[in-house]
Amino acid sequence: MVRIAIDAMGGDFGPEPIIKGCIQAFKQKKFIPILVGKKDEILSLLPKRYRDKISIVQADDIISMGDAATDAIKRKESSIYKAIDLVKMGEADGIVSAGHSGATMTLATLRLGRLKGVVRPALAAVMPTKSKNRSILLDVGANVDSKAEHIVQFAIMGGCYAEDMFGIDTPSIGLLANGEEKSKGNEVTKEAFKLLDDYKGFVGNVEGGDIFNASCDVIACDGFVGNLVLKASEGVAATISGLIKEYIRKSPVAITGALLMRKVFKLLKKQMDYEEVGGAPLLGIKGCAIVSHGKSGPKAIKNAIFQAINYTETGVNKHIVHRIAELKAKEEKI
C-alpha cells in the first residue's frame, strides 16, 4: 500500500485543514498516511477513531513562509525536512506539503536526488482550459535562467506526466514563445526548438493563449517565465471572479440571471479552482513531492494526496528515466 508523508505544519492556516484533508482522503482511498509535525497539536485535532490508523512523526521546527529556502537544509528538525527524509529512507513513497514551496523543492532535490539523466527538476502546474481537459505548464518556479537542454527535459517530463496521469497516448508538446513561427522566441527557446524538432508530439512554438484553449497538452518554458504566467493567471481569475460578483450584486437583473445560471457558475468554479488539482508535482526527483498552495483547505490537501498516490502507482519516474535515456542515446548518434 502507498505511504504518503504529509507536512502537517505547512500552510497558512496551521495543521487543522491539513489534518482534515488527510482524513477526507483516508475515507475515500486506501493508503498509509503519515502526519509530520508537532505531535501534541496534531493529536488535539485528530479524532480518536483515527489515532490508530494515522501515524505521527514528531517534528519540533516549522519553516515559515518568510524563511530563506536555502536555510531549510540545515533545519533537520523541521516538519518538511523530516517528511522528505521519510521518502529518502524508504519509509514513505511520496510527500505532500502546503508549506514553504522553495524549502520543499530545495530539500526534495538535495535530499532525494535527481532521477538518472535529469539535469534539473521542474515544477509542473495543471492549468484549466476551455474544455474538460487540462494543460500542463512547466517549469513554473523550480528554476530560473534555464538552458535549452533544461527546457527540452521539462518538455519530455511533462509529456510523461500527461501520458501516465491523464492517459493521453501522444501528448501535444509546445514551447512557450512570443509567436508560433519558428523564428520567434529568444536564443534559448530557438535552441530548444531545434533539439525537440523531431520529438514525438512536438508541435513547435505556442503562445500564452494556448495554455488555456486546449490546443496543447504540455507547454514547456523557463521557470522564471512560467512562474510569472502562473501568478498572472491566478490574478486574472481572481479579478474576473470578483468583477462578476460585484456586477451581480449591483444589478437585480443580473441576480436573476445568476440564479438561473447557478449550475454554469458551479461548473466554472470547479474548472478554475486550484483545490480540484491539489498541488504541483516536482518532476525529475527520486520519489514524489507534491507542492500545494499555502492557502490550501482540506479539499486541496485531499486532492494533493490523491495526486501523490496516483503518481506513485503509475510509475511516472521510470517513464521519465527511459525517455531521457532515449533522447540522450539519439543525440550521441548524431
Describe the structure.
By secondary structure, the chain is an alpha/beta fold. The chain folds into two domains: 146 residues, Isopropylmalate Dehydrogenase (3-Layer(aba) Sandwich), CATH 3.40.718.10; 153 residues, Isopropylmalate Dehydrogenase (3-Layer(aba) Sandwich). 46% of the residues lie in helices and 15% in strands. It has eleven helices and eleven strands. An eleven-stranded mixed β-sheet has the order 3-2-1-4-11-10-5-6-9-7-8, with helices on both faces. Helix 1 packs across helix 10 and helix 5 packs across helix 6. The N and C termini lie far apart (44 Å). The relative contact order is 0.16.
Number of helices: 11
The CATH topology annotation of the largest domain reads as: Isopropylmalate Dehydrogenase
Main sheet: strands, sense, barrel = 11 strands, mixed
User: Regarding CATH, which class of the largest domain?
Assistant: Alpha Beta
User: How many β strands by DSSP?
Assistant: 11
Properties at a glance:
11 strands, globular, 334 residues, 2 domains, Isopropylmalate Dehydrogenase, alpha/beta, 46% helix, eleven-stranded mixed beta sheet, 11 helices
Could you give a short description of this structure?
The protein is α/β, with parallel strands linked by helices.
Q: What topology emerges from the helices and strands here?
A:
Blueprint: E1 3-7, H1 15-28, E2 32-37, H2 39-45, E3 55-58, H3 79-88, E4 94-97, H4 101-112, E5 122-128, E6 134-138, H5 148-166, E7 173-176, H6 187-196, E8 202-206, E9 218-220, H7 223-250, H8 252-260, H9 262-272, E10 280-283, E11 289-291, H10 298-314, H11 316-333
Parallel strand pairs: 1-2, 1-4, 2-3, 4-11, 6-9, 7-8, 7-9
Antiparallel strand pairs: 5-6, 5-10, 10-11
